[in-house]
Structure formats: C-alpha cells, structure tokens
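Reply to dn_fold:

You asked what the input looked like. This is it:
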Amino acid sequence: MPNSKRLEQAIVHLDELEAIVVDDPIDLYYLTSLQLSLGRLFIFKDRKPVLCVDGRYAEAAAQQNLVDVQIWDWKSPLPFALPKRIGFDSLKTTYAQFEQLMHLAPTTDWVALQGPILQQRMIKDEGEIALLKEVARLGTQGYQYVLTLLKEGITEQEVACELEIFWKRHGAEGVAFSPIIAFGEHSAFPHHRASSRKLRQGDIVLIDIGVSLHHYQSDMTRVCFFGSVSQQLQHIYKLVLHAADKAYELCRPGVLIGEVDAAARNFIESSGYHFIHGLGHGVGLEVHEKPRVRISTADADLPLKPGMVLTIEPGIYLPNEGGVRLEDTIVITHNGYESLTQCSMQPVDVLTQL
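and this is what came back:
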C-alpha cells in the first residue's frame, strides 16, 4: 500500500481531535518510508501532514512529497501553529516527551490514545504480506541450515553465530532477536540464551529463530531430536502438535483471539500440563507487535481479520529435562489462514540423517 494511503487511514484515528502526533521511529517508517532515529510527524484533519526533523535527515525527507518538512532543533518553538486538541500515543510517548509537548504548546489539549498506529499496523496490506512471505522463506532456510550444523560437540553459541552469518550472507539486515538455540535441559527455558552447552547424543534441541529483511521480521520455532530422547519428551511433542492443531482449526475471520488461545491452552491443561505463556503475537515491522494472542490480554476480545499476521506457538516445558514449543507465522485470509513458515512440524531425528 502506498504510504499516502496509510497517512489517509491514520486520519480516522482523529475522531473528535484535530491532529495526532507520531514520534516512534517504527511508526514513522510505516507512514513515510523514512528511517529516522528522531522525528515528529503531525497528521492533521484538514491539511497536509508536517514532519519535523533535524539537519541530519533534511535531505532525505525533502526527497519525498507525502508530507511537508520542517527543520527543527527540538528546543525552539515549533515553526507552525498547532490546533487545540491533539492526540498522542500513550503506549510509546515517555513522560519526558509528554512534558516537552506540554512545553511546546501549553494551551493545547493533549489527548492520550492507545497505540493508534499500532492498531493500523495490525492489518497488513498486500505489499507487506509479500515482504513477510519473503522474510519467512529466508527464516526457514536458516532453520534448514541449522540442522546441518548439529554435530556432537558443537555449542549453542556456535550454532547461533553461524546462523547469523548465514543470514547476512543471504542478504538479511540481521536477526530479528537473539536466536534461541537450546540443547537438552535448556529447552525447558522458553527464553533461553545460547550458551557454551555442547550438543550430546540423546538431546532434544529447540530452535526459535527470526530474521530481518526489508525491515520486516520472521519468527518460527522447531524442535528436533539428536538421537533417542525420553518417552516423556516424545509424548509432550505429540501433545504440542495437537494443541497447535486445535488453535489452527479456529484461525479464520470473526473468531475471537481469546478463543484461539483457549483452544490450545485448554487442551494442554486438560492433558495434565501447564501452558505458561501466550499462544502467540503479531509479526510485522517488529517481531512482537499487536495483536497479543492470549486470553488474559486486552486483545482477547478482538476478532481475527484478514491481513492479520501472527504466530501460533504452544509449548510444554519439563524442568531439568527439556521442553517443546512449535511455532508458525500465519496470515489470516478471507476464509481461513495461510502459513508463511512452510516447514513441517513433524519430529526429526537429526542424528539418523547424518
């Protein structure tokens, strides 16, 4: 979608307001395609948006015609008048930034809004979905490369490092987050950080990875075996697969997000295990964005809509033994969903394939 359309859509957030101000760098990129570490965009109901930047971004900003550009030093009065009621993003504006806004326009009524651009970003357009498919393919290639690295004696850190190099060589901007490479008992920690732990026969291996390309992110998790693992770990693998199926059965427009989480959560808990985290999250310009797929969040009552891109990632964790989490990134379509990950979840014994 052209950025002009995104700017036009942002106006709907105004309601009774006369303008909104946007200063989060990712929201600014979404609306203008400009990479700014510092910028402030005013979107008005009745006139062209105004982007304030300092001298570092003056030339780049001047090359686009979506918004008027004003060079500003962040200390002087604004070089244009502000209306009486302006909305700001209370989820992203710090107290210090709010104080600055009050100082700039003490007579303006600054109205707190709950993530207005985040709400807009929640529904991806066709161009975004195409980019997310491309980055998901690169993510899956990274997973397949990781499988070739799994040899006895290699460390989690070595795998994580080699994966990042692989992705960089294939055009990636970087990793979406620090790769979670967890051998054996470490897979029982949902947010484990790669360590010097060496791979041994009989280990379960959890691989939670994501890559960044064209500013968009991927996210996927797979679990494989390095030789024979315990019957209990094989059992919870099957349970997690079934929990994912329960969730996918509900992934279609109109179903409430909380219902999707509950389907997987109830199945795991009825099987005698705990489900200790949310079922998933939105993915886009950030690897964790709206909606949050969990029954206990404010997003639980949101219905799924075409264009939503989110993860489904049920998991079961056994302290001191290991854990299983399986994660795909999907896009909600008009009649169901499509997986962007395109990689089997069936268990693989890597040792038998060497």
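DSSP finds ten helices and 19 strands in the chain.
Hope that clears it up.
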